[in-house]
Amino acid sequence: MTLGLAVLGGAAAGCGIRATAVPVDAGPAPTRVSCALPRATAPGDTSGLTSVEVYLVCSQRVSPVQRAVPEKALNQSDRLTAAQLLLAELERKPDQAEEKGGFATEVPGGLQVVGPATGDPAATLRLDQDPDDLPSYAMGQLVCTFAGTPAGDTGRTVVLGGPDPHVPPRRYTCDETMRTVPDAGTTAGKPAS
Predict the structure, then answer these.
(1) Closest to 98 measured CA to CA, from 180, 146, 38
(2) What is the rounded distance in angstroms from the CA atom of residue 19 to the CA atom of residue 59?
(3) Cα→Cα distances 124→50, 73, 146, 157, 162, Å
(4) Do the beta carbons of residue 150 and residue 82 sit within 8 Å?
(5) In the chain, what are the domain boundaries?
(6) Mind spelling out the 3-state secondary structure of the chain?
(7) What's the pLDDT tens digit per position in 9-66?
(8) Please, which residues have CB within 8 angstroms of residue 145's CB and are 6 or more apart in sequence?
(9) Residue whose C-alpha is closest to residue 51's, from 64, 62, 63, 32
(10) pLDDT tens digit string along 123-158?
């Protein structure tokens, strides 16, 4: 019995991790999610639908998943209608396959988007919440989902502002920083002209 306890004590002491006198933040535990979705099975009735990339959070970045949306609503030139449609997709809970792949959304439910305020550039979309107050990855999701669609502006950019018409909107680009840095939305925007 004593020999068994001595062996267990020696094994525990020799685990290779040194004890420290102060707490150490080693960051989050490694993730085992794939951030990949299984190949789709044969689609059902897809008439009137088109595929669009919606950016969700997975493994400390925002990554695209394909969603089917009404083609008519997305392909018309109305920026606001396209933005509202895409925002609804971002607010929607990931489906079972997306959850299994490790995807989630940080875009809060009930977020609203409207068109430009007086004096804003024509491409402006205003949220009913200040962009700086959104959850960490939500701006990356919004910017990268809107960019490259009728909701965005030229050069994979999006012009976004908050509810206060006296605070000028900012232009955001869907780039590597926006996709990987949680708080990029608070620093990445440039004054829109």
Answers:
(1) 38
(2) 29
(3) 25, 19, 12, 11, 10
(4) yes
(5) 49-191
(6) CHHHHHHHHHHHHCCCCCCCCCCCCCCCCCCCCCCCCCCCCCCCCCCCEEEEEEEEECCCCEEEEEEEEEHHHHHCCCHHHHHHHHHHHHHCCCCHHHHHCCCECCCCCCCCEECCCCCCCCCEEEECCCHHHCCCCHHHHHHHHHCCCCCCECCCEEEEECCCCCCCCEEEECCHHHHHCCCHHHCCCEECC
(7) 544 455 455 555 555 444 444 445 568 776 554 445 567 888 889 999 999 899 999 9
(8) 53, 54, 55, 86, 89, 90, 151
(9) 64
(10) 999 999 999 899 889 999 999 999 988 899 888 899
In which residue are the tokens 């991790």 written?
17
**69 exposure class (CB count in 10 Å sphere: 0-12, 13-18, 19+):** buried
CA separation (Å) from 144 to 2, 52, 55?
62, 12, 6
Residue with tokens 């840095």: 181
pTM (global) more than 0.85: no
Nearest to 107 by CA among 27, 185, 191, 189: 185
